[in-house]
Amino acid sequence: MKMENLASQLKRGISRQFSTGSLKRSLSRQFSRQSSLDPRRNNLRFSFGRQSSLDPIRRRNSQDEMSVPENLDSTMQLLFMASRGDVKGVEDLLNEGIDVNSIDLDGRTALHIAACEGHVEVVKLLLSRNANIDARDRWGSTAAADAKYYGNVEVYEILKARGAKVPKTRKTPMTVANPQEVPEYELNPMELQIRKSDGITK
Questions:
Q1: What's the pTM?
Q2: What is the pLDDT of residues 114-154, one digit of tens each?
Q3: Which UniProt keywords apply (predicted)?
């Protein structure tokens, strides 16, 4: 009898947590550029905006409208607000006692996220609340490195002026993490459609 009660309670709890509507909403949401992408579970992972500048798998831009999912814990809410550039939302969460240096599964802080997205005011707020300026994510990237990589010059200059260490790296958007993963392509000259007026000569 106890096992039936336990099974019934478990079933009710799961059905509340994963009701058809909430599951459809959570699976249908697409978030712009993130935060975190695990290649082994890339279809169900919640992520924010741009990826770490050292993450080997980065997301493309997406203009989908984002709203705060109902079931996020406080850390994820903070990171989400930082990704949106919502200064008031970030400030409210920090005032509620959320740790400014809270991290996601990839070791990324709100400062990493705001730096990737170029949200100057959020970066200033996080720094005023003693965010760890040199925190590294699981790929070893810092907020300053991410800001520099994504061309967010103003954020990069703010972080640098505050003493952020910028890792020396030769990585560029065209750097290949593993040359064996680069596909080889062969072109058949007969399939190319080139007119003589294109200025191409043999």
A1: 0.54
A2: 999 999 999 999 999 999 999 999 888 999 999 988 899 99
A3: ANK repeat
